[in-house]
Amino acid sequence: MAATVSSRIAPLVLSLAVLVAVTKAHEHHDDKIPEGEGISPDPIDTTLWIHIAIQILSFGLIFPTGMVLGISKSRFHVPLQTTGALLSLLGYILGHKHKGRQFAPNIHASLAFSVMSLLVLQVVLGIYLRLHLEKGIHARIRPVIRISHSIVGKVFPVVSWVQMLLGGIVAMGFCRGDHLGQCLAHFIMGSAFIGYGIVLTILLLVGQAWLKRTGRSQEFFDSLVIAAWGCVNTFTEHRWGGPWVANDLQHTSMGIVWWCAGLLGVWLSRGRDGRPRRNLIPGMVILMTGWAMSAHPQHLELSTHVHTIFGYTLMAAGAVRIIEISFVLKDKNTVGKEVGDMNSFQMLTPFLLYASGFLFMGATEEQLALLSEHNVTHVSYILLLYSIAFLLFLYVNVLLYVYAESAWPRGSVASSTLTAPTANGGIKLKDEGPGRSRLANGHAHTYPNGTVDGRVRDAEEFELEGLMSGDEGEDEDLEGVDGRERRRKEGEVMDV
Question: Is the pLDDT of residue 160 over 60?
């Protein structure tokens, strides 16, 4: 059976690889591009628009959704990823067959072959795993293949994000020459804010059990990243040995604040007894960064308005984070003990980070100069960027909902108890050895795939009902007993 499937699929994979290589060899024309420009004045034709739409659908929607379904071991993982791979291949071909606007050599086109090669590799790894070859040498290499397939699958959404951003930049002819440095700062920093917001969303909705297992507070990891990022900014925002120009000093001083505050946050994230402890340092850093950005001097009025709102949004994210830890959670990790338990106020910080990221990525000199030429007001532009942030926040929440529904079905112990998932997607309240869990009444049971059998749960509910009915039958005997003594005896009955 495996040999038959392999013989059918191998030619298909080989054909895909050859098609990608042949398409890469296609020659691009750039004879209409003016000197010193990155694009020709021609409009984008229909073929290229279809290429953009298909690649956004496959790389932006299908592959991340398929990754989540793969993590949760859903049967829809393979069909969805196969569809995405075929669509992306079609989009890749169309990207080399368009007319209209021409492009100078660029990084988006250079990376396209590498991205498609990574996709072909992921398809090959997935096919191997689907063949279920587990005997002989396959018993040794299969675990390596599984880990490799998992890593590539989780890295692919990040690669897709970078490639889509580069595609949009190249399509407009931005970020060339003297504008490159500013573009790098805006798009890298903006993506970092969005990534931070996504991580906070994951930890808020499905990541508390993992965080509890690490024995660290969330601020430990936040502060560690802040310190590392501050070190990078300190030594990269200015060309050392050259003159200090424009906003070099402000950017460099911001990097210094980040690593100084980050080191303090790491130290404060653990108490004297070694237990994790919450602190406000990351929120303070975000607030201070927003204040600095809101006062950033700009050349265009539109740019000043956009940077101001970006700074205010970032300041709001930091302030909300401080309020959340101090007054909503009161230095605790969650507001309850159930998976996904949260206060609606906690959603504000991640969303404001999403919005901050899009505002910063949309605030480069070339973008704002183009908008000013077309008389686009800052109000319209900022509302549009906020709309994109809302859509991304919705999409991330949908993906996490899909994961939670697959990994922790409603009605199971996991859906009502904040505990860590096992390797195969199940949940254990207390460790009792492989495949065993200890329930609330102290009884240990063995469950297939780490889930609680419904009949066992029903039997235990019946047992608890019997205890409760026994309490009711003893009411007459306890009439003359003092109230505190009665409650003590009832507690002993419930502890049986």
Answer: yes
Tens of pLDDT, residues 376-423:
999 999 999 999 999 999 999 999 999 988 877 776 655 545 554 444
Q: What is the DSSP string of 360-379?
A: HHT--HHHHHHHHHTT--HH
Cα–Cα distance measured from residue 189 to residue 182, given in angstroms and rounded to the nearest whole number: 11
**11-33: burial string, b at 16+ Cβ within 10 Å, e else:** eeeeebbeebeebbeeeeeeeeb
By three-state DSSP, how is residue 208 classified? Answer: helix
Are the CB atoms for 359 and 222 separated by under 8 Å? no
Contacts for 286 with CB less than 8 Å, ≥ 6 apart: 314, 315, 317, 318, 321, 353
Contact by Cβ (8 Å): 116, 89: yes
What's the pLDDT band for 242 if we cut at 50, 70, 90?
confident
Q: Do 109 and 103 touch, CB atoms closer than 8 A?
A: yes
270-321 pLDDT, tens digit each: 998 889 999 999 999 999 999 998 887 788 899 999 999 999 999 999 999 9
Name every residue whose Cβ is closer than 8 Å to that of residue 284 and which is 6 or more positions away in sequence. 261, 318, 322
Measure the CA–CA gap between 345 and 339, rounded to whole angstroms.
17
| 274: region left, alpha or beta (phi > 0 left; psi from -120 to 50 alpha) | left
CB atoms near residue 491 (< 10 Å)? 9
**Mind listing the pLDDT tens digit for each residue in 59-73?**
999 999 999 999 988
Instruction: Please list the helix, strand and coil fractions of the chain in percent, rounded to the nearest 5, in that order.
Output: 70, 5, 30
Whole-angstrom Cα distance, residue 287 to residue 281? 10
Q: What are phi and psi of 297, to 5 degrees?
A: -65, 135
State which H helix or E strand residue 446 sits in: strand 444-446
DSSP structure string for 261-317:
HHHHHHHHTB-TTS-B---SHHHHHHHHHHHHHHT---SSHHHHHHHHHHHHHHHHH
The Cα–Cα gap between 479 and 494 comes to 19
* CA-based nearest residue to 400, from 205, 267, 235: 205
Tokens matching residue 343: 């206060």
The residue type of 363 is: A
Altogether, the residues listed in the chain come to a count of 496
Identify the bridge partners of residue 44 per DSSP, sorted by sequence position.
Answer: 100
Question: Which 8-state DSSP code applies to residue 346?
Answer: G
